[in-house]
Design brief:
The structure holds 2 protein chains of 2 kinds.
Chain A (H helix, E strand, L loop, with lengths): L1 H4 L7 H19 L4 H14 L5 H4 L1 H10 L3 H13 L3 H5 L4 H6 L2 H11 L4 H8 L6 H10 L5 H13 L1 H12 L2 H4 L12 H18 L4 H15 L4 H23 L5 H4 L2 H29 L20 H13 L6 H26 L1
Chain B lengths: L2 H4 L8 H5 L1 H28 L11
């Protein structure tokens, strides 16, 4: 009868806590629909790796981790899918919107300084990149820098991305007046040629890679996905990248990230601090975008609704939609969607560049 | 696992915040420079590859 309770008696309280966290992630994924495609595999993986003597930890999950995360392959493959999903049309119509994407990366560098007060340099840099509001970039940078906190960083990055509808509105309201939130921005529809759409991902790749070679893989895979979408002769591949490839990689990514969610690695005060720093990163990112828009309004004749600056946080497309909804709430005739989505996709590009810069500084 | 081993790497050194300010400034500067180059490149490709307007044949 020993067999019935021998393994049960070896559970530590930390493993029990981790299993509760696994249940929580599964609950949030299913009941609250918070990034379910990632939190559910992560939650289930957390259960698998926290059973005493689990053969999943030393077997398939370890192998998947080594094959896909330790060498950054999964985040990069996921970027092909994300690139294929993004329509850069609104950005190409009004390229100046990209400035907001740059401004909204301030949270990364502010959090870098904050995190450095608690953590060694490489870990601080890995934690700061939670502010990219972009899971694959966070995982890729943290892996390259060899951080031992990939589990906590991934949980923070994806959880806060899911919580963007709760985090961003109060920050935006705090930093803007009602008059500013009512500013209308008429959208001028311009035709963007097919050739422009094809050239854009190629030129972005060349420019960014030439200046920050550490970002070549990240930006290259993202733009490769977009080129498949825009070239017009690979519709089937584009669809596969957007759906099958992205879904498949997300499953493997989620479950193999759980390799770092063992009790020994996760139940630490460090984890709570990382979650706190991640929240700071998202808040400061949002503030950075909004305040930059307000700054531009000091000199600009055509006033910008400062709320659109918040969409530069990446977290595509949620952040863009939230800004649009906030605009409609203030004035049902104020349609900010095309502007906010333009800023949002620029945030995606800027966050990858920021990841490359962090790798350049500390890699 | 003692409570101390749970927080083995944690130290609190506020002075490190100041030592990171140069990265903060440099990082933001580099991002704005790269984004500005991308904006210029985008404006350029928009101009070069913009759809040509068909001329009115009656004129």
């Amino acid at each position: 009868m020993d067999i019935l309770y021998k393994n049960l008696s070896e559970f530590t309280w930390q493993q029990v806590v981790m299993i509760a966290i696994g249940f929580l992630l599964i609950y949030l994924a299913i009941a609250k629909e918070m990034e379910p495609s990632l939190l559910l595999p992560m939650g289930f993986g957390t259960l698998l790796v926290n059973i005493p003597h689990s053969d999943a930890l030393v077997g398939p999950i370890k192998e998947l981790y080594e094959a896909g995360i330790a060498n950054e392959l999964f985040p990069l493959l996921l970027f092909i899918g994300i690139g294929a999903m993004i329509d850069f049309g609104p950005l190409l119509t009004n390229p100046k919107l990209m400035l907001f994407g740059a401004a909204a990366q301030f949270g990364i560098f502010f959090t870098l300084a904050m995190a450095r007060m608690f953590f060694p340099e490489l870990d601080a840099a890995s934690i700061a990149i939670i502010g990219a509001a972009d899971g694959p970039t966070s995982i890729a940078v943290a892996t390259t820098l060899g951080s031992g906190y990939i589990g906590a960083i991934t949980v923070a990055a994806y959880s806060y991305m899911a919580l963007v509808p709760i985090i961003q509105p109060p920050v935006i309201k705090l930093l803007t007046t009602k008059k500013e939130r009512l500013i209308r921005m008429p959208y001028e529809q311009k035709n963007v040629s097919k050739l422009t759409r094809i050239m854009f991902p190629i030129i972005i790749t060349v420019v960014v890679s030439a200046i920050v070679p550490q970002a070549t893989a990240l930006i290259g895979f993202l733009m490769f996905g977009n080129l498949i979408r825009e070239c017009g002769v690979l519709d089937s591949l584009s669809e596969t990248a957007q759906k099958v490839l992205a879904n498949l990689i997300t499953i493997f990514l989620g479950i193999s990230v759980a390799f770092n969610m063992t009790a020994q690695q996760f139940i630490k005060i460090d984890t709570l601090i990382i979650l706190g720093l991640g929240l700071i990163a998202f808040v400061v990112d949002t503030a950075g975008g909004v305040l930059f828009a307000k700054f531009l309004n000091l000199f600009s004749k055509k006033k910008i609704n400062p709320m659109i600056g918040a969409a530069g946080i990446s977290a595509f497309p949620m952040s863009g939609r939230i800004v649009h909804k906030m605009g409609l709430k203030e004035d049902p005739q104020n349609f900010l969607l095309m502007h906010s989505i333009g800023v949002n996709v620029s945030g995606q590009i800027a966050s990858v560049i920021a990841g490359g810069i962090i790798l350049n500084f500390f890699g | 696992m003692s409570i101390f081993s749970l927080a083995s790497k944690i130290t609190f050194e506020p002075a490190n915040f100041l030592s990171m300010l140069k990265y903060m400034g440099l990082g933001m500067l580099v991002i704005f420079i790269i984004i500005s180059i991308i904006i210029l490149a985008t404006v350029l490709i928009n101009k070069i590859f913009s759809p040509k307007k068909k001329k009115d044949e009656n004129q």
